């Protein structure tokens, strides 16, 4: 059996292919046919999931056999938790017969297909549910706050991080429970980026205010102690960059480093871990 594998999706089918040295179709996988909008692997490589018009199918990635089927139609986005114990599905917003919004963001347990929790989510994103590295907690953004939950009690808010105007956040990937948040500039007020320890939200560990920032990308180091903020404007008023003006900032909560990184025009950033950072 190959140690590597890759998936491909066309307009009408999905396939799984073993890597070196076979480079052959995974024998146990029955290729689905029809409208297949999305597919993804779990981070640990245990599962492969794909969405059809009728349902979501989870496959054992080693054998290609169906593990279970989730009874949720017309899913447009899928995302697994870090250890593959949960999968999030997102459907287009819709209304129930009584006129209330249907809960279209759903979290399922991959062990048995149980629906663990569901929310109303207008934005197109299954990644709006984020987990700590050990899946002990998860979080999602609501109006002016980040709500934290324990996965042992997924329907009840455990802690609130109140941040006026917050639009983006990202949990750290390592054993250090941290969360980075972003508030875009508005009506002459600067944008803000900050890092908090979870669950001590009394004050940020580090924060920074700056202009020329409509949106942001976060890149954490593996330990969850330092994060790069790549800020971007929709339009570069200098005309130097088609993608808008970009700036890169670094915050390291253990080394107490808060700095702007000057590199010229930046399109993408990635965190490379160095000793001490």
TrEMBL record:
Residues 208-263 form the Translation initiation factor beta propellor-like domain. InterPro entries: TIF2A, TIF_beta_prop-like, WD40/YVTN_repeat-like_dom_sf. One of its GO terms (molecular function) is tRNA binding. GO terms for cellular component: cytosolic small ribosomal subunit. The keyword Repeat applies. GO terms for biological process: regulation of translation. Keywords: Initiation factor, Protein biosynthesis, Repeat, Translation regulation, WD repeat. It comes from the Eukaryota. Signal peptide: none annotated. PANTHER family: EUKARYOTIC TRANSLATION INITIATION FACTOR 2A. Belongs to the WD repeat EIF2A family. This is Eukaryotic translation initiation factor 2A. It comes from Arthrobotrys oligospora (strain ATCC 24927 / CBS 115.81 / DSM 1491) (Nematode-trapping fungus).
């Amino acid at each position: 059996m190959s140690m590597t594998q890759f998936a491909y999706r066309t307009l009408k089918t999905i396939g799984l292919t073993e890597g070196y040295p076979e480079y052959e179709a995974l024998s146990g996988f029955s290729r689905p046919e029809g409208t297949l909008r999305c597919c993804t692997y779990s981070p640990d490589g245990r599962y492969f999931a794909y969405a059809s018009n009728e349902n979501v199918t989870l496959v054992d990635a080693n054998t290609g056999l169906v593990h279970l089927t989730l009874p949720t139609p017309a899913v447009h986005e899928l995302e697994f938790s870090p250890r593959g114990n949960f999968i999030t599905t997102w459907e287009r917003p819709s209304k129930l017969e009584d006129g209330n919004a249907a809960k279209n963001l759903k979290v399922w347990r991959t062990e048995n297909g149980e629906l663990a929790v569901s929310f109303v989510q207008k934005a197109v994103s299954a990644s709006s549910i984020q987990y700590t590295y050990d899946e002990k907690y998860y979080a999602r953004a609501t109006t002016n706050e980040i709500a934290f939950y324990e996965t042992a009690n997924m329907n009840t808010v455990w802690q609130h991080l109140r941040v006026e105007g917050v639009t983006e956040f990202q949990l750290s990937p390592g054993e250090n429970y941290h969360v980075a948040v972003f508030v875009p500039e508005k009506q002459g007020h600067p944008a803000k980026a900050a890092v908090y320890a979870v669950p001590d939200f009394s004050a940020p560990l580090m924060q920074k205010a700056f202009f020329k920032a409509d949106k942001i990308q976060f890149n954490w180091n593996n330990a969850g102690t330092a994060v790069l903020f790549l800020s971007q404007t929709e339009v570069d008023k200098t005309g130097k960059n088609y993608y808008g003006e970009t700036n890169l900032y670094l915050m390291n909560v253990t080394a107490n480093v808060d700095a702007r990184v000057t590199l010229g025009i930046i399109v993408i950033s990635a965190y490379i871990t160095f000793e001490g950072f």
